[in-house]
């Protein structure tokens, strides 16, 4: 309960936007799901219709976003005191 309140009250600066840590965690989980979908598409490509290199590039960009967001959340966690 305290963690949820703290995550709602604590803000992250993401680009030009300010979001709550809670929203950041939700966004990070969503990015991870997208990475997993792209990975599955790449690994289980049974047709030659998919542009695998494009999918890999998209996945790599999402992974960079995931790492960046995880870093912001971790830094916030270590610098925020529970209220």
Question: Quick gist of this model?
Answer:
This protein is mostly helical and 83 residues long. It has helices at 2-9, 21-43, 52-79, and strands spanning 11-14, 17-20.
Molecular structure report:
- This protein is mainly alpha-helical.
- It has one domain (2-79).
- The chain has three helices and two strands.
- Strands 1-2 form a two-stranded antiparallel sheet.
- The protein is elongated.
> How far apart lie the N and C ends?
11 Å
- What is the element string, with H for helices and E for strands? HEEHH
H/I helix tally: 3
Structural class call reads mainly alpha
Q: Please summarize the sheet with the most strands.
A: 2 strands, antiparallel
Give the oligomeric state of the chains in this entry, treating copies of one chain as homo and distinct chains as hetero: single chain
Global outline: elongated
Number of strands: 2
Cα radius of gyration in angstroms: 16 Å
Write down the domain tally: 1
Helix proportion: over 70%
State mean pLDDT (0 to 100 scale). 88
With strands numbered from the N-terminus, the spatial order across the biggest sheet is: 1-2
Strand content: 5-15%
Low-confidence runs (pLDDT<50, min 5 residues)? none
How would you describe this structure in keywords?
83 residues; mainly alpha; two-stranded antiparallel sheet; elongated
Mind sketching the topology for me?
Layout: H1 2-9, E1 11-14, E2 17-20, H2 21-43, H3 52-79
């Amino acid at each position: 309960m305290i963690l949820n309140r703290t995550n709602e009250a604590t803000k992250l600066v993401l680009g030009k936007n300010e979001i709550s840590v809670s929203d950041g965690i939700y966004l990070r989980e969503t990015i991870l799901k997208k990475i997993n979908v792209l990975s599955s598409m790449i690994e289980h490509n049974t047709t030659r219709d998919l542009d695998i290199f494009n999918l890999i590039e998209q996945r790599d960009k999402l992974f960079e976003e995931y790492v960046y967001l995880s870093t912001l959340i971790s830094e916030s966690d270590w610098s925020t005191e529970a209220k």
